Amino acid sequence: MKVSIIGAGNVGATTALFLAQKEIADLVLVDVIEGMPQGKALDMLEASPVLGYSCDIVGTNSYEDIKDSSIVIITAGLARRPGMDRLDLLKKNAGIIQSAVENICQYAPDSIILIVTNPLDVMTYHAFKVSGFNRERVLGQAGVLDSSRFASFVAKELNVSMQDIHAMVLGGHGDTMLPLPDYTTVSGVPVAQLLSKDKLDAIIDRTRKAGGEIVSLLKTGSAYYSPAASAAYMAEAIIKDKKSLISASVYLEGEYGLSGICIGVPVILGKGGAEKIVEVELTEDQRQSLHNSAEVYKKSIQFLK
Q1: Cystine design at 274: which of 146, 179, 180, 267 (Cβ 3.0–4.6 Å)?
Q2: For residue 261, which of 136, 76, 124 has the smallest C-alpha distance?
Q3: Where are the domains of the chain?
Q4: Is 51:92 a contact under the CB 8 Å cutoff?
């Protein structure tokens, strides 16, 4: 198998490292900066005897090298800076995504596209429209990341193993996301039975602002370990045909009462990509929150058009 990663910055290079450690595919790192993807790929290759993985890792400045990729992960784009909202990135990153997707269509037309670039949901929509691929093959990774952040905060508050937490976050990848306590459990026990409403509300609020919290701490960049881990997790589920139930940004055609937009919903992830959209029961308030989240991105899509 072959996975190509477009963008060899912090997120892209870390995604490549996590995938290398999984030993599930040969890897291609693509970037416009001469020498950077080649240097990082060589560095990772030289680490393989110590870390114990065996796969081919190539860096390149040419899109031709993504030929025959099963999955293409797009991380290229400008990162957020302090005070910058994800939607501030819209115009510049849309151009980057368009160029990348057009090259994917030319050199890897049978691949599955996985978007990591922000603003995530709008860039996923843009990639879907530019590619002309069916909706199963173009998806954004944010739901896995947001659910992971939610789970980590719950685990820290309860002082339990991170692995015992199973969380679900729907909606857009931003301040309007919708963490679902009803579908978040600790070894099967609903989290609402273990935390007071005030503490749970505080964790939900922190989850919504988690990306911005890291940006404010780093000051000159944004998160990359957790986004990269989430992208690698999704790529593994696709390659191994795991049929994992996860949250991902996909194009909706009436599900949850929404159409013509990409937003985070539960999907079954396998070798065909987002093979099935799962509609879970939501309260009226939760459903309204999901629609409110969608409205934010509908406005961005109109601006993009």
Answers
A1: 267
A2: 124
A3: 2-141, 143-304
A4: no
- Residue keyed to tokens 């603003």: 119
Q: Would you say the C-alpha torsion 239, 242, 246, 250 has a positive or negative sign?
A: positive
Assess whether 173 carries a catalytic annotation: yes
Run of H or E residues at 257: none
Q: Count other C-beta atoms under 10 Å from residue 272's C-beta.
A: 14
In the chain, how long is the greatest CA-to-CA distance? Answer: 54
pLDDT tens column, 169-226: 999 888 889 999 999 999 999 999 999 999 999 999 999 999 999 989 998 888 999 9
Report residue 84: phi and psi, to 5°. -100, 125
CATH of the domain spanning 2-141, picked from 3.40.50.970, 3.10.450.70, 3.30.70.100, 3.40.50.720: 3.40.50.720
State the chain's mean pLDDT as an integer.
Answer: 94
* Cα 285–chain centre separation: 26
b/e burial code for range 163-175 (CB count within 10 A of at least 16 → b) = eebbbbbbbbbbe
pLDDT in tens, 217-252: 998 888 999 999 999 999 999 999 999 999 999 999
Contact 244, 268 (CB under 8 A): yes
pLDDT tens profile 44-89? 999 999 999 999 999 999 999 999 999 999 999 987 666 666 566 7
Per the CB < 8 A criterion, the answer to whether 222 and 77 are in contact is no
47: left (phi over 0), alpha (psi -120 to 50) or beta: alpha
**143-304 maps to which CATH number?**
3.90.110.10
DSSP state of 110: T
